[in-house]
Amino acid sequence: MRELFKKRLALHQRHMQKYLRYVFNDHFVLICVFLLGGVGLYYSEFVKALPRNFWPAAGVALLILVAILPLGRFATLMQEADIVFLLPKERALKEYFKGAFNYSLLLPFFIELLVLGFLMPLLVATTAITFPAFFILLGTMWLLKLAQLKIATLKIYQVAPSKLRQVELLWLVLAVLCLAAGIFLNPFIGLILAFVTGVGIFKLLAKSEENLDWEKMIGMEKSRLHRIYQFINLFTDVPEITATVKRRAYLDGVLQKIKPQQKNTYLYLYARRFARGSEYSGLFIRLVVIGSLLLYFVQDVYFSLGLGILFIYMIGFQLIPLYNQFRYMILTQLYPVSSQQKAKALQVLLLLLLSLAAFVFAISASLALSLWYERFLVIAAYFLMVFFFTRWYVPRRLKKMA
């Protein structure tokens, strides 16, 4: 059974690698480097300004560490056909799930490593712990994650939901106590408590893993993969994901402003695809909200300038795949419409959407900046970026796509 999991894992990783080269492209890496550099600069200045023994900051760090512990689901890699073909081997699947358990720990461990490394300067500045305590706190978090993932594996078995909720609540209380003891008392105390918690959880659940709930298990794996594909779909088309369409009657007044003329054929299609499809409109709203919130708390004109331009570029870049939404529809091939109209229609739609985003960003940045010339500078830069992106970058990008 372990060999079966290894084969499935190898196939899954090869499948994901095909998409990851689109996710971690040059643009995304550049954006991440820029954001990390800017956040790191402000974070270092913020930590230096904090007083010693400032417990509210340590309390926020504690909440963040507790919040990231549940990240990462139990990846079984099970398929629908397994209900038929692996049902006779249900008892032997324990070896299969051991491999799945170990694989499911990799990403959460890496996330905890990064987040704790990011928060350590804050903890050192506001508590009595030192930087070498990083490894002890990391061990504490890993032990707590082991216990949490063990509880997550219980969901694939026929266990009463009430019992599952009780165990999850018990783990949460113990996790808060362990991390609080490690941060505010002594890191070794937190490590010892986490070890006791992990051993206790494993022994408590040792006899609960009896009968598999096959349909629930496969549904959980489908849900897990769907979340991954949703993220990848922000960067490229994913055949495994099906788009959901919503009526959104409240947008009819806006959409009806597009006159029913032949020159507006693709503008009509793209606008309705954006408004009524969940992935593009949701992406636009999320990035606008996140960008405006970040700009509201940035008081440096140059960082506000770069951050706003960066988010405008991100929004526009993620919306460009709208161009291919109707490529495989036979009816659109029969339309007596020139191919140039597609590119022009997308440019017009992006100009409207990015102008709206620039307007929202300009308001947020203006509220944060105090000088009028700084406000004028960021507003002008945002709208210049919209003009540059739609008039220069988009046509060249579409030529490559075509």
Automatic annotation (TrEMBL):
This is ABC transporter permease. The keyword Metal-binding does not apply. It holds the Pfam family EcsB. It comes from Candidatus Enterococcus myersii. Keywords: Membrane, Transmembrane, Transmembrane helix. The chain crosses the membrane at residues 20-42, 54-75, 96-116, 122-144, 164-182, 188-206, 280-298, 304-324, 345-369, 375-394. The keyword Transmembrane helix applies. It comes from the Bacteria.
